[in-house]
Design brief:
The chain is α+β, with helices and mostly antiparallel strands. The chain is built from 3 helices and 5 strands. The chain has a 5-stranded antiparallel β-sheet, with helices on one face. A hairpin with a 2-residue loop joins strand 4 and strand 5. Helix 1 runs antiparallel to helix 2. It is globular.
C-alpha cells in the first residue's frame, strides 16, 4: 500500500483522459489500499463532470490532485470553468447520467465544490 504525498497531473480535457485520471489515482494509492476502488470510482465521476460540463471538455484541460496520508485520501479535480456555476446539489440519477453526486454523498467522508475565478474545483475525502 502506497501512502503519504501529493501527486498532481494536468490532463487534456478529452473523455479518454478520464481513464488516465483513474489510473493515476490507482497508481498513487496502490491496488491493495482499502479505499482504492471507491477512490477510483469517485475520481471517474468528478473527472467526467469536468470534461462534460466545463470548458475543459472544449479543448481545455483539467488538473487532478491526489493527496494521501496514512489515514486519509483527498482527490481534487479543477476544471476550466463554465458560464454558469455547476449544480452542486444532491442530484438524482435519470438512469444514464446524474450518478456522480449521489455516489459522492454515499461513499465520501466529505466532499465539496469551490468556484473561484470562474474555475470549478470538486474534491472528496475518504478516511
Amino acid at each position: 500500500m502506497k501512502v503519504a504525498g501529493d501527486r498532481v497531473a494536468r490532463l487534456a480535457g478529452g473523455k479518454e483522459q478520464v481513464v488516465r485520471a483513474r489510473r493515476l489515482v490507482s497508481a498513487a494509492l496502490g491496488r491493495d489500499h482499502p479505499l482504492h476502488d471507491d477512490c477510483v470510482l469517485l475520481t471517474s465521476e468528478i473527472a467526467t463532470n469536468a470534461v462534460v460540463h466545463s470548458r475543459s471538455g472544449e479543448g481545455g484541460s483539467f488538473t487532478l490532485t491526489v493527496s494521501c496520508t496514512e489515514d486519509r485520501v483527498r482527490v481534487c479535480v479543477q476544471d476550466e470553468g463554465s458560464a454558469d456555476p455547476p449544480c452542486a446539489g444532491h442530484a438524482v440519477s435519470n438512469g444514464t447520467s446524474g450518478r456522480g453526486l449521489p455516489l459522492l454523498d454515499a461513499l465520501a467522508a466529505r466532499w465539496g465544490m469551490i468556484r473561484e475565478a470562474g474555475r470549478n474545483q470538486v474534491w472528496f475525502e475518504m478516511a
